[in-house]
Design goal:
heterodimer, A: mainly alpha, 3-stranded antiparallel sheet, 8% strand, elongated, B: alpha/beta, Rossmann fold, 11 strands, 27% strand, ATP-binding (chain B), MacB-like_ATP-bd (chain B), transport (chain B), ABC_transporter-like_ATP-bd (chain B), transmembrane transporter activity (chain B)
Chain lengths: 172, 238
């Protein structure tokens, strides 16, 4: 949150309210950020010297302050953008656990996979609909989600094709 | 939540436009379909999914009247397709059905415009009129600029849009699409799906979409999975 606000301030100083609006428009999607969170983040950034108050309008109150990014703030944003996010390894897999438990208990494991596949495809369908009606920002956000769901679905299909083999290994 | 074979109920209202009942088909000793059933209504996009060799293309060929099943029935608008003689069945395929395949469906010697006009010309329409309709469909599929080119001179994505235009030019009631984006990159594949589904919805045509790609299947309204020649539909409570 802090680094995202700093990144938005790189384009020029803003009031807290404008910053919240810019954040919601670009990154909020279905979950707008609370004012309180923006102000508490800004006070932390101010304390740490990453932003400074660039002007105060008459009348007082927190929304009257205009914040600008400092050179330390720019350094932090640059460092963040050029550091890779840690790739998620997804090794803790509830679906795998369910499949194994279904096999161990003599249930129909294929049904566990089929039901999950249907749920995944339904979610993909909703995202595809939203993407088709949306702008480029919507398309990119939905595509990110769609690729992840697709990865799960491919795993479900692959596992369905290997159920007999897995059942043998588990029972041996 | 239930998983069941042989879906018999519609997910929404409306009589089925096309229906397969307990289809069985073998090639020699190898069974391809082993009791597959499905229904599709007008204006509905149905994805037929399943691994390679599961029987989904055979199911599509039986549904489209290209191949007769060994047993079971295909009903189109309530009439048994498999009982029709060859002539009327071919006529039905030409006038009521449209086809989009992965590749190799356009005539290489004809221009893209002539390819799209071809189904209308085969139906006896005059060249000028047929080419006017074909031009409209090429425009709608955003490939009017390749009208005068031969398919070999168009890109894969353009060629596939031309193929969709050709499938749509007779305003068919059912479009059969077998891996329609299989040879395309993600972005081109997405656009072809948007245009195909958009055109089908606009004309209230049903689409039977065979695919193993989840992102393509996500353009459907409903999906049926074919596994070992059997069809399976899962219903989820919301």
């Amino acid at each position: 949150m802090g680094l995202t606000l700093l990144g938005l301030l790189e384009n020029g100083p803003r009031h807290g309210y404008d910053l919240k609006k810019a954040y919601d428009e670009r990154f909020g999607h279905d979950r707008p950020v609370h004012y309180g969170q923006v102000y508490s983040t800004l006070s932390r950034l101010l304390r740490d010297g990453l932003v400074e108050v660039n002007g105060v309008e008459a009348g007082g109150g927190p929304d009257r302050k205009r914040y600008a990014i400092t050179s330390s703030g720019v350094t932090d944003v640059h460092g963040w953008l050029t550091t890779p996010e840690k790739p998620e390894l997804y090794l803790q897999n509830t679906l795998y656990t369910k499949v194994v438990l279904a096999l161990l208990s003599g249930r129909v494991a294929a049904e566990v996979l089929d039901i999950q596949r249907a749920a995944h495809l339904r979610a993909m369908r909703e995202l595809t609909q939203r993407k088709t009606n949306g702008d480029l920002a919507d398309q990119l956000i939905c595509d990110h989600a769609l690729f992840h769901l697709e990865a799960d679905l491919r795993w479900l299909q692959l596992t369905a094709a290997r159920l007999d083999q897995l059942a043998k290994e588990i029972s041996s | 939540m239930t998983a069941r074979e042989h879906p018999t109920e519609q997910a929404a209202d409306g009589p089925p436009l096309l229906e397969a009942q307990e289809l069985r088909k073998s090639f020699g000793a190898t069974p391809a379909l082993d009791g597959a059933s499905l229904r599709v209504r007008a204006g509905e996009v149905l994805a037929v999914m399943g691994p390679s060799g599961s029987g989904k293309s055979t199911l599509l060929h039986c549904l489209a009247g290209i191949m007769p099943p060994d047993s079971g029935r295909v009903l189109y608008q309530g009439a048994e397709l498999s009982a029709l003689p060859d002539g009327p069945r071919s006529e039905l395929r030409r006038t009521e059905f449209g086809f989009v395949f992965q590749f190799g469906q356009l005539v290489p010697e004809l221009t893209c415009l002539e390819n799209v006009a071809l189904p209308l010309r085969l139906g006896g329409m005059k060249r000028k009129e047929a080419e006017r309709s074909a031009t409209e469909w090429l425009e709608r599929l955003e490939v009017a600029d390749v009208a005068g080119k031969r398919p070999g001179e168009a890109s894969g994505g353009q060629g596939q849009r031309v193929a969709v235009a050709r499938a749509m030019v007779t305003t068919p009631k059912v479009i059969f699409a077998d891996e329609p984006t299989g040879a395309l990159d993600t972005l081109n594949g997405e656009r072809v799906m948007q245009l195909l589904v958009g055109a089908a919805k606009d004309t209230n045509a049903a689409v039977v979409l065979v695919t193993h790609e989840p992102r393509v299947a996500a353009y459907s309204d409903r999906e049926v999975v074919v596994r070992d020649g059997k069809s399976l539909e899962v219903e989820l409570s919301r």
